[in-house]
Amino acid sequence: MTKNLITGIGGFVASHLADYLLEMGEEVYGTYRWNEDLSKIEHLKDKITLIPMDLNDLRSCIDAMEFKPDYIFHLAAQSYVSESFNYPIETIRTNTLGTLNLLEAVRLAKIDPIIHVCSSSEVYGLVTKDEIPIKESCKFNPSNPYAVGKVGADMIALMYYTNYGLKIIRTRMFTHTGPRRTMLSAEVNFAKQIAKFEEHSRTCIEADKGGVYTLKHGNLDSIRTFADVRDAVKAYYLLVRKGKIGEVYNIGGETTKTIGEVLDYLISLSDVEIIKEVDQSLLRPYDVTLQIPDCSKFKKLGWEPEITFEQTMQDLLNWCRKSKIKY
User: Which of the ends of the chain has fewer CB neighbours closer than 10 A, N or C?
Assistant: First the structure.
């Protein structure tokens, strides 16, 4: 049976990828850090094999290769862009040197898996209108520590393919979201607040019902192209089977909207009255916009996104309502 290793198994995308690989009848092994939140894979714990590993510890990376995986999906990272400003050293160490440790572990273990190294569209940073849609040849212009760390991971992956012959394929995934996402990206922040307002409206005293709720937001003018996480993991599955070794692929959705339009759509899904108010703490020092990808290279492998933007947002909001996560 095909053996898959997912680094950072407790993560948002990793949990969905594990679901899909199990649906395809394959074995799933997942790495986790000793203090990692594994609640997103609670429903999977008896179906997968968990392996303790820290990207910043080469020995643990080597030990994780003992079962000789056929495919490695390197998804583990410090992926909170906002927190990368607060912890730049840890972010770059984990995302760049952690990737170095993982690939060196594969080399030292003398195994020959196909390795997906998940980079990010953030490596392109702030682009100009003449660079839209963004192709894989677009220059790097990282605007935050997270993006710098991903540039390092991207280039280390290319170096290990070029110099050591590791079977590596890189992706630069654009905005993707859906159920189980807890990171405070804009759409998740909005959905959490709306779910909180609805819960309050149902449970507060009668005199308070029908009140107006104020939703706090950051920059609403930034432009993003949205994909569903469940389409993303199908893309990753296809990537390691049909993608060309050594190549890099943009992957993203087909619905492009401003963050303000996303907010308006989410508000339209609720029956509580909501007004909007900017929160200065949610404004990034340097914001990336015009994240509109050219995914034609990857689509030649036979992939197309299937889940609509509207369905993604509805499922995200419903998940926030149902999970009753801490708001």
Answer: N
Alpha-helix residue ranges (DSSP H) falling in the chain: 12-23, 58-63, 81-86, 88-92, 98-109, 145-164, 186-203, 229-242, 259-268, 296-299, 309-323
Per-residue model confidence (pLDDT) at position 206: 47
The architecture (CATH level 2) of 3-178+228-253+292-307 comes to: 3-Layer(aba) Sandwich (3.40)
Instruction: Give 14's pLDDT tier (boundaries 50, 70, 90).
Output: very high
Whether the CB-CB separation of 76 and 115 falls below 8 Å is answered with: no
What is the greatest pairwise CA distance in the chain? 70
Better-predicted residue by pLDDT, 113 or 284? 113
pLDDT digits (tens, 9 = 90+) for 137-151: 999 999 999 999 999
Cα-based distances in Å from 48 to 10, 72, 287: 12, 15, 38
Q: If we measure between CA atoms, which residue out of 222, 242, 248 comes closest to residue 123?
A: 248
CATH of domain 186-221+257-291+314-323: 3.90.25.10
Q: How far is CA 134 from the centre of its chain?
A: 18
Pairing verdict, β 167-173 and 71-74: unpaired
Output the six-digit token pair for 26: 């394959």
Predicted confidence (pLDDT) per residue in 18-30, tens digit: 999 999 999 999 9
How much is the pTM?
Answer: 0.94
Query: Which of these, 282, 275, 293, 117, lies nearest to 188 by C-alpha position?
Result: 282
Helix (H, G, I), strand (E, B) or coil at 25: coil
